[in-house]
Design brief:
The complex is a heterodimer of chains A (156) and B (437). Chain A is built from 6 helices and 3 strands. Chain A has helices spanning 3-6, 9-17, 70-83, 88-102, 112-115, 131-149; strands spanning 33-41, 46-55, 58-67. Chain B is of the alpha/beta class and 437 residues long. Chain B has 14 helices and 17 strands. A 7-stranded mixed sheet of chain B has the order 4-10-9-8-7-5-6, sandwiched between helices. Chain B has a 4-stranded antiparallel sheet with strand order 13-14-17-16, with helices on one face. In chain B, helix 5 links the parallel strand 5 (143-147) and strand 6. In chain B, helix 2 runs antiparallel to helix 10 (308-324) and helix 11 (326-345) runs parallel beside helix 14 (418-434). The termini of chain B are far apart. Classes of the chains: A alpha+beta (156), B alpha/beta (437). The interface between A and B is medium-sized, with 19 and 18 residues.
């Protein structure tokens, strides 16, 4: 497999674009509930914080801050593009599908109908050492979403 | 007393291996003729793990085919032969390090050697440890000193020991050029210092530390010295008695040996006063249901079934290195190290860590590529058959000190050629353009 199949043009572009990056600068939309998750890859020291805001059953906003390789940064950028405006249920299904493709060791082809631009990461599944790079922001988003959906603690 | 760093390098005194000789050496390493995705393998990750010559692989096979039996027990001839091979291996490693035979303890790896020491010191610090163990006991007010450039293996065991005994962990800082601040060290190593643990050569920076200077500082205050020789023993002539350290650890798989084997060197007088770390069979004299008496070193620290075939294969590795000549290996790798650092420094956007070109370093170089993450650098090189290490190299505090999270490291050994280095440099020169940095 060639390097170009791993680093597809869309990945190299998103690694620079960093769509949705910058947590502090943009506040959570009024009236939404939000959750935030920080994930660390101890192998390389890459880290990412993802914040997901949910409003009326939809992902109202996904913002992130992070430092890492082009795969992890591009993956977070694509994720932010994809998530905003999506129904919560569909978003969960997309995360599950992305994980399944990434963990397939090259056996599953990505379906662009489901994953959109995130299909570009299917080549990563053949590089076991890089799967975590592509997954890290999605794992953070899943955790942040669960927090956003958790019933808020009762007022004292 | 003023302490100054003096060069302890032998590199300039001994003629280096030559390219022709290295080509012959390469024939002894079957894996080096592999092709990786259509490219000949260029292996520049020996700092992580080295490759094995056929003599090492055969030594392990020969043991299992001809001599395998339990050592230090059993009256049959096979057991005697196995024991002899195992103890011959200890003699070989003792000679390799300039130590006495009873001063060589087999460990699973260097990490275990360092944990053996820290746990033995912890055992010495417990109530009822006894008078002979008192010199290793630590408590509140005592200090353990490490350096800012340590591998996690020579940091975390001491952090844990400090936490459990109430002792304080201090460290000698590293300057921007990746050199230990010896002036600071002279203040940090003081009357409260009980242990000084430091690496001989940095696995990230390539810096060769002034061992004798640091040992002199420790001796002046009566502190024990622990040398992490993982990146030095495989690459340069090393004599523990000449260096004057109390303890040293080495890793087998970084010196052409198999995994699962390392050595802890300790001065015999100290080892025989230290309480054991692991206890069980093979390390005792008399056992009752209530208590046990322990054998002297080295058996005192070798409880349970030992790493017999690995020890024998490691001895074959030490023999291979000795026959090639450690001085000549060091001289060759110094040339490769300089070629690496000079080449990298001349590529725009590359920041090389550690000593500047022309200054002493072992045959490795770590670097940062502006705008490109180390994992991407490593992936790009891998696509050309070039194997390097990426990440924090088990030295997070050092990377933080240098303002980085991950770097790329190329590390050479006696089987690397100048054309390996040149192919690597040519590939690194293309990295930023590929990623649009």
């Amino acid at each position: 497999m060639s390097l170009e199949q791993l680093y597809q043009q869309i990945i190299l572009e998103h690694a620079k674009l960093r769509t949705g990056s910058g947590l502090a600068e943009i506040p959570v939309p009024a009236g939404s509930s939000s959750g935030q998750s920080h994930q660390l890859n101890p192998v390389c020291g890459d880290e990412i914080t993802v914040r997901v805001a949910v409003s009326e059953g939809k992902v109202a906003q996904l913002r992130w801050d992070g430092a890492g390789c082009s795969i992890s940064m591009a993956s977070a950028s694509v994720l932010a593009d994809l998530a905003e405006g999506m129904e919560v249920g569909s978003f969960t299904k997309v995360i599950d599908n992305f994980r399944e493709v990434l963990r397939s060791r090259g056996k599953l082809a990505a379906d662009p109908e489901i994953l959109g631009d995130a299909s570009a990461f299917e080549g990563v599944s053949k590089y076991a050492a890089r799967v975590k790079c592509a997954m890290i922001s999605w794992v953070a988003a899943e955790d942040a979403l669960a927090q956003a959906l958790a019933p808020s603690p009762a007022a004292p | 007393m003023a302490f100054t760093a003096t060069s302890e390098s032998q590199a300039l005194l001994t003629p280096a291996l030559g390219d022709d000789e290295v080509l012959r050496i390469r024939n002894d390493f079957p894996i080096l003729s592999r092709s990786m995705g259509g490219h000949p393998l260029i292996y520049l990750d020996s700092g992580a793990t080295s490759q094995n010559p056929i003599s090492v692989i055969e030594a392990e096979q020969e043991f299992y085919e001809q001599r395998n039996a339990a050592v230090h027990r059993g009256a049959h001839l096979l057991a005697v032969e196995a024991t002899e091979s195992f103890e011959d291996a200890r003699e070989t490693l003792a000679a390799f390090l300039g130590a006495g035979v009873d001063e060589i303890i087999w460990t699973s790896n260097a990490t275990e050697g360092l944990n053996l020491l820290s746990y033995s010191f912890l055992n010495s610090s417990l109530p009822g440890a006894g008078a002979t163990a008192a010199r290793f006991a630590l408590g509140a007010g005592d200090e353990i000193v490490v350096t800012e450039m340590e591998h996690h293996a020579n940091l975390i065991p001491w952090q844990q020991l400090a936490e459990r005994t109430g002792a304080t962990l201090r460290f000698i800082p590293v300057d921007d050029a990746g050199v230990l601040d010896l002036e600071a060290a002279a203040g940090i190593i003081n009357a409260a210092t009980r242990v000084l643990a430091f690496s001989h050569a940095s696995n990230v920076l390539g810096t060769i530390n002034p061992v004798k200077t640091l040992v002199a500082m420790a001796r002046q205050v009566g502190a024990l010295t622990v040398l992490d020789a993982c990146q030095s023993a495989p690459h340069l002539p090393l004599d523990v008695k000449d260096l004057g350290v109390d303890f040293a650890v080495i890793s087998g798989h970084k010196m052409l040996g198999p995994t699962g084997i390392g050595v802890l060197y300790g001065r015999s007088e100290l080892l025989n006063a230290m309480p054991p770390f692991l206890t069980g069979g093979s390390m005792i004299t008399t056992v009752t249901m209530e208590r046990a008496a322990f054998l002297p070193s080295p058996q005192r620290f070798e409880a349970g079934t030992q790493k017999v075939s690995q020890a024998i294969a490691l001895a074959a590795a030490a023999n291979y290195l000795t026959e090639t000549g450690m001085g000549r290996i060091h001289a060759w790798e110094s040339l490769l190290g300089q070629r690496l650092v000079e080449g990298l420094a001349s590529i725009p956007g590359i920041r090389v860590l550690g000593p500047a070109p022309g200054q002493d370093r072992i045959g490795l170089a770590s670097f940062d590529v502006a705008g490109v993450h180390a994992h991407d650098v490593g992936q790009f090189l891998d696509s050309k058959g070039i194997a390097v290490r990426v990440g924090h190299h088990c030295a997070q505090p050092l990377h933080r000190r240098l303002g980085l999270t991950a770097t790329t490291r190329a590390s050479t050994y006696l089987y690397n050629t100048t054309s390996d280095v040149d192919a690597f440099l040519a590939a690194v020169a293309e990295v930023r353009a590929y990623f649009g940095a």
